[in-house]
Amino acid sequence: TSITINDNNSNANAVSAIPPLIQQLPIFNGGGIGGNGGVGGKNPPRSTSLSIVPARENSTVATALRQLTKEPTYDSDLAAESCLLELLPVKNKEFRTLEKGILKVSILRDDEDETPPKETYDDVSKRLLETLQYLDDQRNKLAPVFNMDDSTTLSIEKATRGETLLENLRKELVSLLSLIQNYDVETNGRILQQQKRTLRALAEVGELLVDIFPYDVPTKEKFSFLPRLLGRAKITFTIVRPATSSKGRLGTTNRDVVLGNVTILADGFAAPI
């Protein structure tokens, strides 16, 4: 059998990548055994179109699973979580291994137009289970970092908060694993939100793994009176409509009305002043 390159195929030039020795085989030299196609030249060669299909069009379960072996990265859906974790001056190997393990879940969103096959969910579930086991095995290496100038009270508070945050991280990780193991067509959106919660829980653990502030912050002259934040802090603003004594468009109220709360995470690692 001979293989004829279809001239209309935009990838036809890819045949040039075929090694010369392979091109000498009968299927590439225009004939079969005997040189004229078929045995002894009796059978005419059959022409076949050879097309080089892009990886996305030729995707298979195996191709999807191979993506899990690549170095996981943040996507646009995890922009905030990317800032929280990548700005942390933490070199703890176990911490970064957990981060990569949670990021592997993102493969489930690689193709927005297609639902990943069951095998992909199963493989992600298996790897996330390994991440959970890794957290349990390496938990003692994720304990808070204590500094020489920490008071006894502060050290106790750090240890207590560290245990609370690690337990919360494990809870979020278990919830993420449960969603993936029991997936359905409506699950992917919930998986993304749970992945975000898990990464944020990891970031909170990481805040206690910073030994010293990574750079000097000016304290003299024009900077001397400015407040500084050498870490991170959650700040909640309560929006209140004050009481009014005169009747207006919204009526008369004799008490303040709470409209809602807005919570921000101030990051001193990004902007300490």
Tell me what the structure shows.
By secondary structure, the chain is of the alpha+beta class. 37% of the residues lie in helices and 9% in strands. The chain contains 7 helices and 4 strands; from the N terminus they run E-H-E-H-H-H-H-H-H-E-E. A two-stranded parallel sheet has the order 1-2. It has a two-stranded antiparallel ribbon with strand order 3-4. Helix 1 (20-23) links the parallel strand 1 and strand 2. Helix 4 packs antiparallel against helix 5, helix 4 packs antiparallel against helix 7 (187-207) and helix 5 packs antiparallel against helix 6. 16% of the residues are buried. Mean pLDDT is 78; it is low at 1-18, 25-40 and 45-66.
Q: How are the elements arranged and paired?
A:
Blueprint: E1 4-5, H1 20-23, E2 49-50, H2 61-66, H3 79-86, H4 93-103, H5 118-137, H6 152-181, H7 187-207, E3 232-241, E4 257-267
Parallel strand pairs: 1-2
Antiparallel strand pairs: 3-4
Helix pairs in contact: 4-5, 4-7, 5-6, 6-7
